[in-house]
Amino acid sequence: MKRLALFFLMLTASIGWAVAQNRTITGTVTSGEGKEPVMFANVVVEGNTSIGTTTDVDGKFTLSVPASAKKLTFSYVGLKTISVPITKVMNVVMTTDDRTLDQVVVVGYGSGQKLSTISGSMARVSGEQIAEKPVANVMDALQGKVAGMSVLTTSGDPNAVANVQIHGAGSLTAGTAPLYIVDGMQTDLATVMAMNSNDIESMNVLMDASSTSIYGARAANGVVVITTKKGKRSDEGLGRITVNAQYGVSQFLNRKPYDEMMTGDELLEYQAAHGYLKAKTKAELLAALSKKAQNENEREAWPFIPLFDVADYNPADYNFDWLNFLMGRTAPTYNADISFSGGSNRTQYYISMGTLSQEGLDRGRNSFTRYNGRVSVDSRVKDWLKVGANLFGAYTTQYASSFENNPYVNSGTFGALSQPRYLTPYDENGELRRYWYLVQIGSTNVFQDIIDKYRSNTSNGYQANVSGYAELTPIQGLIIKTQAGLDLTHSSTSRIFLPGAYWLNDQRGTRSEERSLAGLFTWTNTAEYRTSFADQHKLTFLLGQEWVQSRSDVIGAYVKGLEHPEFMLLGSGSTQPEDLMLPDQVKSGYNYLSFFGRVNYSFDNYLHVDLSLRSDASSRFGLDNQTALFYSVGATYDIYRAHLEHVKWLNTLRLRASWGTTGNSSIPTLAFYPHLDRVNYSGIFGLQAVTIGNPNLGWEKQSNLNVGVDFDAFDNRLHTVTNVYHRITDDMLMQVPLSYITGFASRYENVGSMTNTGVDLTASYDIVRTRDWNVYASVVLNYNHEKITKLFYDLEEYKRPTYGLVYKKGEAEQFLVAEYAGVNPETGKQRWYLPDEHGNISEDRVTENYEEDKLLRASGKKFRAPFNGGFSMGASWKGLALDIDWSFNVGKYMMNNDRYFTENLSADFLSSNKSRKVLDAWTKDKPNTDVPKFGEQIAFDSRLIENASFLRLKNVRLSYALPSEWFEKIGVISGVRVYVTGRNLLTFTKYSGFDPEAGTNLSMNSYPNTRQYVGGLQITF
Question: Which among 447, 451, 454, 449 has a CA at the least distance from the CA of 497?
């Protein structure tokens, strides 16, 4: 017992002695002349890196160190690492280190490169610039952020994805979308949309051949490399918990086109003046409308009630707001997520879960809902072995709008424009009617509300991206890595129409089901060796092999004749021969087998040379053309480090140049192969030829020259990156029309060529940079000149009147229309310029006869803008920050198809609402006008081609990080930040439609982008 007591006494003394040997050090770390706090700087005991901490958001730290410790070492990316003797209270100033300012970025395979050694054109967007945006469409956050990348959100539907192009369109009929890589695995934009933007660490956009050639056949249109967040080491072994929550609302963006339509009374006056329903006065027209409704009521099997009271008509009471009714919802958005991250010296983890619910403005069912989760684990199980896994899963439910690009009069923006405002959907009691009368159709139509009670179109999807790797370091400098992953998508679409829809001839129900399963498997093996000699020469060798396999299987079934709403499964359909339909199934797939290599050489940290080579074999082409070789060579010369380090105001001056090739294989998987498909002749199975094939079909090849200059000055306050590029596409994959005697309309061939030449500019400047204040401004700009240099059959131009477009040698793809020449002041008839044999027009060649084959000509107006970019500005003071982002698109044109209906003066269009512009129509008393006389039916000519350039206030964010001192006593919460965000707040444009961004070459019944207001909260534990 005495021995036990003595033991505890000695143990207690030992602990007290050990504690007495430790001392607590506090301090603040700042940088630069302005003494700004350095957040998250590493602070460790010199000679014992296991004892350390990081600074907080105010640059402060507290660390318990042994009595034997003499110095603390402070390090931070971009700042010089320093060791400082220990004092009880330390105030440490760190200075800029241009040599270590480089970020290590992922530009291809391997362990990454320092930014200063990259010879190619690339841009890095941090996760902070992507996070907290109030849309599911992640790429929308990059609009106006990357010079050389055009991002257009062509629909305001919450289910829409962005249209992304890098350095223009490199092909006319093959794919032009970039390749998306997430944590080393290929994926598509749908999977990116299913990701939580708060899980993204960074996006690297690779634009030239030196950066993309290592990806070979898939990288002709650029590469977007997405790196997700990973756990970070904590000396204390403690993790980090982050909770984000958002709530916002969406509103209609622009009412101007609707407000320029006629009021109900103006339309009645106009219709009466032109004899609608043989009326001569407004009173006669009201009576005629009532009579027409009665006749319709007698014709229909169900009762009809007029939408206004003819006997007591008051113009002020019948000016209904159809736009507010059909698209005027204040649609909510909910977003919440939680993440857990941390790790030790050997193992790091990151776990997140989130949900997003966004509703659309459409009166019908229109929403996007997502539940997602991510797990990332990296562990160095041995000094020579590191393993890791990334697991991502998401479940989405989508109700997409159905009216876009369709002239539906009961939904969407076109429905709002078309409806006479003297009609109202509400009865005398303010209740919504079951149906309403659309005079322009001549029959009864049903409100979307009623249709949605019978119709249900639901799409559910499961996305999973699973990958794992093992990384061996058998000897110093050598890294052998194998990585495999599967990108899996399963979607289910159900379309149900219940029986009893009283407005249909066949009132029985229908149901269709579609199931789709698509998988993309990637297996990559690399060996990378880094070495150096003579203290000046550094070499990196990379060898690799990759296998990509894609498979998809789509099955669909349809039944009709369903009699009871409680029995709506496929097996309950009618078995009558006239109702039966065969199920359908489509399978497809492709394979890639690739071998690649890269060599990087650096001399004395100022001269860098890289070479890459890749061989790709693809199943998309015939046996003789499956394999292609792609290469690149690039160099960087750091003029500042080599010759100008003595220039105090200069920080960076770097010259870069690269040349290389990539390939494009984005065409249907069996385009090269003549094949058959099933056909049914009176219920008998048969086969028919569906494609003629082309056994000589091969790769579309692109060559890319890039020259760039990086320039930083004035203590890195000024930062600029300039790139000039010339992109050549040869052996273009094009659908070439065939003679009809072949029995086929077209086939893919390697014909034609085009170029994209342009310049990218990125510039930013820190106007004020002090301890408490930071004010900045930045701009990104791209100019791209597209030119077609060769067409099939040696044509000078190829007209595509169905699309209103033309390919013209020596110019960009452009609109094909008749050029409007105004109104004949004597007759009021329309006139058009009559082109000569070269397509030129003149004032002495006009005609009043619209003959499309004689009048169509290349307009010179492009639907892909040559100029795009954005600029940002912001200011922060202590924890308060304001950031403002603008985006612009200049030189973009679009056909406003809605105007064909709202401005048409034909009597056939008299029943629908009209733009007030038709009130300027020609009359004998008003001969000098550009609007023809009543009775003239306008054409799809140059009048409808509008300048859709725009300048848009894309994002405004005001945030406040509460002082960390407020939470020191609590001990649980380490930080709180609140913010409000506005999206699409202002738009400046000459386009007369609802949204210059909504649409591609044509806009009809568009779904405009929305204006959004969002509030958010972030809490860190």
Answer: 454
Residue 743 pLDDT greater than 90, yes or no: no
CB contact at 8 A, 879 and 944: no
DSSP labels for 280-324?
A: SSHHHHHHHHHHHHHHHHHHSSS----SS-GGG--GGG----HHH
Cα–Cα–Cα angle for 691, 697, 703, nearest 5°?
140
H helix or E strand, kind and range, residue 416: helix 412-418
Using alpha carbons, list the distances in angstroms from residue 943 to 822, 939, 1020.
9, 9, 56
Number of CB atoms found within 10 A of residue 468's CB: 14
Assess contact for 756 and 723: CB atoms under 8 A: no
What distance in Å separates the CA atoms of residue 1012 and residue 251, rounded to the nearest whole number?
6
Q: What span, in angstroms and rounded, lies between the C-alpha atoms of 254 and 989?
A: 11
283, 304, 317, 399, 417 from 307: Cα distances, Å: 16, 9, 12, 30, 18
Q: How confident is the model at residue 10 (pLDDT cuts 50, 70, 90)?
A: very low
Report the distance separating Cα 123 and Cα 145, nearest Å: 9
CB 342 within 8 A of CB 362: no
- Half-sphere exposure (CA, 13 Å, Cβ side) for 809? 13
Supply 164's token pair. Answer: 């992304």
Dihedral sign computed on CA atoms, order 319, 323, 326, 327: negative
Reported confidence tier of residue 987, pLDDT bands at 50, 70, 90: very high
Q: Residue 33 corresponds to which tokens in the numbers above?
A: 């002349």
pLDDT at 870 over 70: yes
Question: The pTM is what?
Answer: 0.84
Query: Could you tell me the pLDDT band of residue 434, with boundaries at 50, 70 and 90?
Result: low
Dihedrals phi, psi of 417, to nearest 5 degrees: -70, -35
pLDDT digits (tens, 9 = 90+) for 278-297: 999 988 888 888 777 666 65
pLDDT value at 16 more than 70: no
DSSP string over 344-373: -SSEEEEEEEEEEEEE-SSSSS-EEEEEEE
Identify the three-state secondary structure at position 854.
helix
**Rounded Cα gap, residues 945 and 893, in angstroms:** 7
Residue 451, token pair as written in the block: 């249709």
Angle at 342 between CA 336 and CA 343, to 5 degrees: 155
Closest CA to 602 of 53, 56, 118, 57: 118
- The rounded distance, in Å, linking the Cα atoms of 80 and 97 is 5
Cβ contacts of residue 1005 below 8 Å, gap of 6+? 403, 404, 405, 406, 407, 408, 412, 413, 414, 415, 898
| Collapsed DSSP state (helix, strand, coil) of residue 975 | strand
**Which H or E run contains 379?**
strand 367-382
| Amino acid 957: pLDDT | 93
**Predicted pLDDT of residue 302:** 47
3-state secondary structure 443-488: EEEECHHHHHHHEEEEEEEEEEEEEEEEEECCCCCEEEEEEEEEEE
Identify the bridge partners of residue 523 per DSSP, sorted by sequence position.
484, 547
